[in-house]
Structures
1.
Amino acid sequence: MANRITRTPWMPLGAFLLLGLLGLIFLQGCNMETKEIRKEFSRLEQITAAGKLVVGTSADYPPYEFHLLPEMEGEMVGIDIDIAEAIAANLNVKLEIRDIVFSKLFEELKAGRIDLALAGLSPTENRKLVADFSIPYYQAIQNMLIRAEDKDRIHLVEDLRGKVVGTQKGSIQEDLARNLVNGATFFLHEDIEELIAALKQRKIDAVILEKPVADTYAFRHKELINLQSAADTQPLYSAAAVRKGDHELLERVNQVLEKLIRENKITESIQAAKLFANKI
């Protein structure tokens, strides 16, 4: 019997190349699909998908943000809280506000644990390295809060030479005090309430604060006065901060702020917040 030889069916070269091309197209399509799946959503898309906007603040800064009552830690009011509510409403999502130590706000923002920071923030050059800022929504000058009994010996910033000056740690007031007050000792604390207590207890001689904040504490504590002489010559602006590169979210924030400013809502919020703060 003759040996049977099994032959492989002959395939034209053109058909072989066509199959190879189809296979390559299929693989490219899979790769494109994988890339699409792996594509990172923008912060705005993440907020919309989660149905929640997480805003970080530091609720010891009336009238910007503060607790309505000491025993109601979750109840926060103020200018920035009103703005946060307006932004959440515009995005049609729920609002979560986190009370964070002021000096940690930008750390939380950079890590993505909050979507937005609203805390009477001034957009300094150093802060712009780690965050993008909205349009300004409020401006105020810096004042000095002192004991009323010291009003005859402390009139100007220059009078703080050789004295102990308190500022909130990580704040723009810390930078201003160090640059403007020569020969002073600086006392830093995370909590403004603690700075006020230290002032009343004679541990420090003055606290540098924004005028509306200093006004509020002077109203609450009659033994303190707020000097009308500014601690800086240039008004500083407050703005909202988003993580660096969150352009779509920033655009929506700016749209909301522009509308609030145009409709005079920011001014109304300031007046209401001052009334609330002065009743505490």
2.
Amino acid sequence: MSTEQFRSLVALYRSRQIEFNNLKPVTLAMWILESGRGTSGLATNHLNFAGMKYRSEISQFAKRVLYNAHDGSGYYCEFATLDDFISGFWAFLDRSPYEGWRDLGNDEIAFIRHIGGVWAEDPNYVSKVIQLLPEAREMLESEVIDVPDPVDVSEEEIEEAAGGHLMPGRPTIAISADGKVAMGGNGLEIDYRGVDSCPYGNSATNHKRRFAGLIIHHTSPQHTTEWYVQYQIDGDPGRGGHHFGYHFYISPAGLIYQGAPLTKRTNQISPSNSVRRAFGSHMQNTNSIGITCARAGTSTGFRPTDEQVTKVKQMVFALCDALDIPFSQVYGHGEIQSNRMRSEGAFLAEEIRAWA
């Protein structure tokens, strides 16, 4: 059964006019699922019925609170009033990870399919929300709030609702409290090799910005993956000791190394307009993560191994999820830089952008 506080939220939502009134049932279904009908700690203590982590874009409606959730501690939204929660929820959706939802505002099923894969890690999240739609509609239509029996949803409907881009096994990445280390989960293993004292890309780090995208690279097959990681740390004496490299290296066998702390940026792409294409020109060393398939090629070309392809997809999926980066902001090095083979990273980036 729902709490009195949750029933008050439903009553307010029922009477309040919002831009997309037809999306009230599906969004209420999300709140039912996320808060356990108002019984979760976030709901009872912080009026957060949607499990929303704090983002600065909704600071006018919420403040930041440290909360120990089922998947660990993190900063979540705390709302002063139920009205602030409703306003904050819709402002939360108007952020870049959910871009495009407004075009689907007339179709609640298309809407939840579009945002569901970003909103929650559970691969069955969308189908669970759809199952709760009858209950949500009844709540909005009546002052009597009883919990009906769950409706049956066919396997075909669940498969269709889940969408085609959900990653098998749902690999995850959690960022350490100091912001430096990417810690893999659900089968994703990352060997951290970053060195705090290493300058990496000095100019990039000095002007660092929030990560806005990822660049996929191939590294020349002259050395081992571990050699390249160490080369990044040591710097190139032939270039005045400058540091070049990537945040993540993937070996031909699929081993993943983190070569630099995420608090630092790396010199992975050229900022020069003479070699940069218009496509992806907003990606710079200051705002992008570099992932390379190290020693991926042979003398006849650069094609990542099957193991590298799998790990790139898992890494990109988990990083985009952890850092709120849209899949549409993933590029191949050759797509954005004209002095590289255009195929470098392109086929993987194209496939990943199609997940959006």
3.
Amino acid sequence: MRARPARAPPGRRHTARIDPGGVDRYPTDMNGIPFPDISPEVFSFTLGGFTLALRWYALAYIAGILIGWRIARAAVLRPGLWQGGEAPMDRAMLEAFMTWIILGIILGGRIGYVLFYQPQQYLSDPAAILRVWEGGMSFHGGLAGVVVATLVFCRTQGIALGPTSDMIALGVAPGLFLGRIANFINAELWGRPTDLPWGVIFPGEAAQDCAGALTGLCARHPSQLYEALLEGLVLGALVLFLAFRRGALRRPWLVTGVFSAGYGTARFLVEFVRQPDAQFVAPGNPLGLAFEAGGWGLTMGQALSLPMILAGLGLVLWAARRN
């Protein structure tokens, strides 16, 4: 899940009650749903001149990791789910493994965001890389970090890689769901302008910079909620059903393949209605395509998702034929 810094300064409540023109109400001909008056902070307090705050995005990460751990633990405690009737690790080893996973998520997510989306900005101000509280995490980078952490852990502990990967895939979706909800609360990563009745009028000048808007304020696709539904609820329900009801964990790499292909497909499709990052948008490239040739192209999110789709499908076919 990639988070850009919230579009309102830290500590200020996002509000949809004031439009860019300074009118303290929406026009009567407005199309779309007003953004809810909700703060990106759960709570904040000042101590010794410093303001400390717990943000919904941080809470989403914490809750997502805890839920994922509980799902993995439930699977580990049921050896009958696994090939040969043996889970890839016991409870004690799972606790140690979680430390590696958390480091992989944080380091990989931050480094991935810097490399994929804002390399020039962070090259000009390298110290900003350490300011993770300002936002900026990449799901694809976090995934790469988890892959590296898993490879090292399995190799050093002599654990089978396939079942371990399947165990991880079981617990990712809740974090994706909560993270996308937090993106919505932060009023970030919104979609392209739309006149559909469920379009949301996000606050901020950037969200309201919609060329061609007819009247009133600009409504946009709530693409964060689309992703929460597809990546979190639908994909999460699918992998849990396959693992706990259909015996998918007895076929190493099958759950991993389903998750990888499912996430990649969901992200690829949502990118069609998701507003691209500002650094990719130009007068000759209004769609924000990161890679373009002959009038066709891909956004950065689509380009990063294609390998996941192909790898996932390959793993599904390989697992089905091998077992």
